[in-house]
Amino acid sequence: MIETQINISVNRKADINTIKSILIRNKIESPVYLTEFVGNFAINFTSSYEEWELDKLISEAFPGYEFTTDLRHGRKEIRVEISRYQSELCTTNWGNPIDNPLNETKYLIKKSVEASIQFNPVIKVLFGPDEQTYHINIIPGINNSTQEKGFLLVDEFKHEADPETADFFPDKLYKTQLDAFYRGKDKLENIVDRDFKDYLEIKKKEKQQREKIPRKIVREFVKACNNFAEESILKDLSENLIFEIRINWKQKLITNGLEEFKNYIDSSYQEICRRDFKIKSSWSFMEKDIIISLETSTPTSEMDEDVKSFYRIRLNIRLEEGKITQIILEK
Known about the structure:
3 domains, about 35% strand, alpha+beta, 16 strands, six-stranded mixed β-sheet, Nuclear Transport Factor 2, Chain: A
């Protein structure tokens, strides 16, 4: 036979009559012991079943309270405590040991008041360094057929909408503003994706426009070097030009100032003119610096100019206020 020992602790003495009334109405078929202590009443009895209906009746008798087995979230006043215990020696009517005998305690405490989640209808979205502002507009609504009240999501995400004139999505009446807000965020993603695509197109055009003049200056400089047109070579160079040649990241040559550079290109050992440089497609812009790859070729010997060795060099050109202030040729 399965017996359940039930113990109830009533921690407000004023509640004892309410609990007694519930026990009487529930027709407990065994003696019920009531013991008074200084701070509470203890009730205990043994039953042939778990008497689960007591939980419901007791919680209904104390509005605003509920039973819980979890007291981890802070210590609240325990108004009523109910424990059930079954011995491991209990057996079923067939004489078999019972599985998982009860040993649990429930506590009647005040119901937790869930704080409503507050939200800002203004959504900020970063497109790179640029901040965009969107609005999730929500207005009160009513279902005319059922008179149910709720909230509607407005079909406007770019600006704060006028609730009197705003168009709304008629597909759903939301029970809470938060429900409408979450749905609005879902819809907003498609709008943001389209706007971001347009933003990238605009930035691409701005970049092309911004790089147009620097590209022209670099192309003209390389062309002038190929033709050894000294006047054109010097046209866009700063008076304070620094020219440097590096081989395997080690400095091989450096000139300071325009005059030294002129002497260099007029020298027999210059390596920048009449080389038939070809600019490859990859351009890199890093603030004031422009980095390009140049393909060039050199005859293997004075006697055999048809046999050529092709290789690439890297040219780093710094532009400031429309003038080339630094050239680094890297091999």
